[in-house]
Fold this sequence. Notes:
Elements: E1 12-16, H1 21-32, E2 36-41, H2 44-58, E3 64-69, H3 75-88, E4 97-99, H4 115-137, H5 153-157, H6 162-165
Parallel strand pairs: 1-2, 1-4, 2-3
Helix pairs in contact: 1-2, 3-4
Amino acid sequence: MTATRTPLAGRTAIVTGASRGIGRATALALAGAGARVALLARSGDALAGLASDIAAVAGRTGGAGVPVPCDLTDDAAVARAVADAVDALGGGAALDVLVNNAGAFIIAPVERLSPADFRATLDTNLVAPFLLVACGGSTPPAESAREAPRWGYGAEHGPAHWSEIDPAFGA
């Protein structure tokens, strides 16, 4: 069976929270468009099932899903997961897409929320996305070797004096 050329053919991606809901749907869509996707979540069994589902629907596009079980509240596990994902997606391939979908929240009055619960929420929602980028989970192309990578709305739409803050954001 010959692979059909698609918009994301040959691209690599990481999707966190891939075992269910929006993360699962996003992983299926990316793979269906031809991307090779590292599927991150805590549930290895659910990820294996998703990888099978991806194989069934994305074979013609060249897309693939690779399960990488990971607890995003564990810094070392996040770093290992990124390294494992890069190896599984083609050994040293640059990662093109990072979808930070995983999220945690606890519905409780603040007086009943333990510090450990609060830290776990911050680790999942704030620290893990930072670590995924820092470990190589997103490598936006730079226009020149000296230009700093730019992420987020402010980098593209910030004030005219960005270069005063950091010369790498110069004109």
